[in-house]
TrEMBL record:
<feature type="transmembrane region" description="Helical">
    <location>
        <begin position="232"/>
        <end position="251"/>
    </location>
</feature>
<feature type="transmembrane region" description="Helical">
    <location>
        <begin position="162"/>
        <end position="186"/>
    </location>
</feature>
<feature type="transmembrane region" description="Helical">
    <location>
        <begin position="21"/>
        <end position="45"/>
    </location>
</feature>
<feature type="transmembrane region" description="Helical">
    <location>
        <begin position="110"/>
        <end position="131"/>
    </location>
</feature>
<feature type="domain" description="EamA">
    <location>
        <begin position="168"/>
        <end position="295"/>
    </location>
</feature>
<dbReference type="InterPro" id="IPR000620">
    <property type="entry name" value="EamA_dom"/>
</dbReference>
<feature type="domain" description="EamA">
    <location>
        <begin position="26"/>
        <end position="154"/>
    </location>
</feature>
<dbReference type="InterPro" id="IPR037185">
    <property type="entry name" value="EmrE-like"/>
</dbReference>
<protein>
    <submittedName>
        <fullName>DMT family transporter</fullName>
    </submittedName>
</protein>
<feature type="transmembrane region" description="Helical">
    <location>
        <begin position="138"/>
        <end position="156"/>
    </location>
</feature>
<dbReference type="Pfam" id="PF00892">
    <property type="entry name" value="EamA"/>
</dbReference>
<comment type="similarity">
    <text>Belongs to the EamA transporter family.</text>
</comment>
<feature type="transmembrane region" description="Helical">
    <location>
        <begin position="51"/>
        <end position="70"/>
    </location>
</feature>
<feature type="transmembrane region" description="Helical">
    <location>
        <begin position="82"/>
        <end position="104"/>
    </location>
</feature>
<keyword id="KW-1133">Transmembrane helix</keyword>
<keyword id="KW-0812">Transmembrane</keyword>
<keyword id="KW-0472">Membrane</keyword>
Amino acid sequence: MSNKDSVIAFDVVTDNGGTRYAGWAMGSLGVLIFSFALPANAWAVRGFHPMAVTVWRALIPGLLAAVLLWRVRAPIPDRRSWPLLVTSGLCVAVGFPLLSSIALTTIHPARAAVILGLLPALTAAFATLFGRERPSPRFWAISGAGLVVLLAYLTTRGGAGGLALGAGDLAMFGATCCSAVAYVLGADRAKVYGAWQSMCWTLVALLPLSIPSGIVTAIVQDPAWTVQSAVGMFYLAVVSTLFGYFAWYAGLARGGIARVGQVQQIQPILTICWSGLFFVETLDPLTFVVGTVVAALVAAGQRVR
């Protein structure tokens, strides 16, 4: 893969200041949408089995994506793109939803947010390992400082953590790794096809798997339909999987995977705020102080070449 058709090369996407700021803005919108995904997932698993959540979270947006691509007569990706699209799809629409749904049956969304706080660092690491991005030592220092502040706060916060690890924690860590890999591959194809077409083709590539799986789950599952479970499923399948990834991949493609990926350090704080609103948690003022510090470090990271 050459730099001509790939966003993975760090210098290709950071020369233009306006492009970088647009990437930061789109990435921030994606993070805002993603920040409610864990609470929505917690609602969904109250009425649906984790496997059903995984299947329908891929099937519903996959069918919508097929309609969108057909309406705009989008060109079919070339043969070398399909392995990347399929791998990205398996990570983002199967690995992350399944493992996070399993995790949320045993751990609280706020605790899951602790583990998801590793995502920006993992994304930057995978971008460096597989994508030939070469962030500067100063960038790594700023990013590491933000990660330390975030995890130090979250792991000592009452009700959100502790150091003992269980099966739910390990499942959430696996989900975080899947998401990081998907971001690197998805951003690469977003440079070639555009953010929304890249995500749509990723979902369409999974339809041969998601359609028969959806039929099977519809037959064997007996979901407990409630307003919360239905809203949770809709948010995951449409708002997060489609619109969230449209914005996120556009941000990564414009601003660089490692740099824009650090915006996601704010996501765990936002998730805890949503948990406080919808799961009757008490939010201490320190949450907002830490959020401000992390946001300042993220902003500093955006300015480092």
